[in-house]
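Onboarding guide, step 5: your first structure request.
Type a short instruction followed by the sequence, for example:

Predict the 3D structure of this protein.
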Amino acid sequence: MDITTLVLIAFVVVLIGISKSAFAGALGVFAVPLLMLKLPASQAIALMLPLLIIGDALSVKSFWRKWDNKLLLPLIPGAIVGVIIAYLIIDIINANHLRFIIAFICILFAIRNILFKQSSLRFLSNKIGAVIMSMLSGITSSLVHAGGPPIIIYFTAIGLTPSKFVATAAIFFASMNLLKLAAALSFGLLTSETVLTALLFFPLAFVGNWIGVKINNAIDKQLFLKVMNYLLLMLGCWLLIK
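The system replies with structure tokens like these:
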């Protein structure tokens, strides 16, 4: 690898660390396109998985036991069902249509909260809402690599505090990415070179995580939710033009 590629990977690792520990992974959607500036698509996607798992592990450690256990219980089973559904419908679903739907929901939800007074959505504030949104996250994560928006929408809608928001998202995405890791290993999609590359940049993941935790601790709930709404709007626009 040339120096430009190494610098780019280093930047992405720090970005993932900040994103995971400050904004529940909302910036992660930009990581693969950035890596694809210097790496082939298959290599960029393969490298992302171990980098995300490293980011998840550091975020879980930083926010240990700050997650919402009652909220988490229906989320992980919902995500597993979503991943299974995705593999069952992968040959009949139009990925572009699904991406458009997720983008539209993100934009609509974000504009609603930005322009009007934010209030909790009652139909989401229960276990059924948690299962539906985590299932949608599992489906979109598997089919269009956009599992973040449904969970971010759900957590924003019920108004979680910054630390609980990030902590619950961290343990949720860590569980889902471990499922993906098992699938990637079984299909031989990860090489020893890819894993070694991810491990070489491990120290920089600590830097990103440290910055992200500082940001999360310094921000109050209302400002945090406002930032998340603007990030959702940005994610929606990105998915729309992608």
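Each response can be followed by summary notes, for example: Residues 162-186 form the longest helix (25 residues).
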